[in-house]
Write a structure and sequence with these properties.
This protein is of the alpha+beta class. It has 6 helices and 3 strands; from the N terminus they run H-H-E-E-E-H-H-H-H. The chain has a 3-stranded antiparallel beta sheet with strand order 1-2-3. A hairpin with a 4-residue loop joins strand 1 and strand 2. This is Iron-sulfur cluster assembly scaffold protein.
């Protein structure tokens, strides 16, 4: 696979948008995940209200795929039920294994070209894992 196919325009635009990048003043939950294989590091902070994500923020030191996944969560997770977002990691893993995303997660299709590059799957999954950990801490 060529790098142009992997790093297509929609993915680059998503990463550059950095939606949700920053920090929250008083997060209810926060978590950091590292990928020791490539050096990516993602921190997510979250605030919940009535079981839904009221606010989130992320900080990413990583590759374009990691930045795009964090930005996708920054754009799509606010307002959704925390349990649904916590399960999003499984949706991404299934997509990377060849499945179609479940209803409500069509945005994940931007990562379809990554299927053919298993060494990069962890880059896409890392933000979902960090957010899942932050949500678990926020719920107690």
């Amino acid at each position: 696979m060529t790098s142009d196919a992997l790093y297509h325009d929609a993915l680059v635009a998503l990463a550059r948008a950095r939606t949700g990048a920053g920090a929250l003043a008083a997060p209810a939950g926060a978590a950091t995940r590292d990928n020791p294989m490539c050096g990516d590091r993602v921190t997510f902070e979250v605030v919940l209200e009535d079981g839904r994500i009221a606010a989130l923020a992320h900080r990413v030191r990583g590759c374009l795929l990691c930045e795009a996944a964090a930005a996708l969560l920054g754009r799509t997770a606010p307002g959704r039920p925390a349990a649904e977002v916590a399960d999003a990691r499984e949706q991404v893993a299934a997509l990377l294994a060849g499945a179609r995303p479940a209803a409500g997660w069509a945005e994940l299709e931007v990562f379809t070209p990554v299927r053919d590059v298993p060494s990069r799957h962890g880059c896409v999954l890392l933000p979902f894992e960090a957010l899942g950990d932050a949500l678990a801490r926020a719920r107690g």
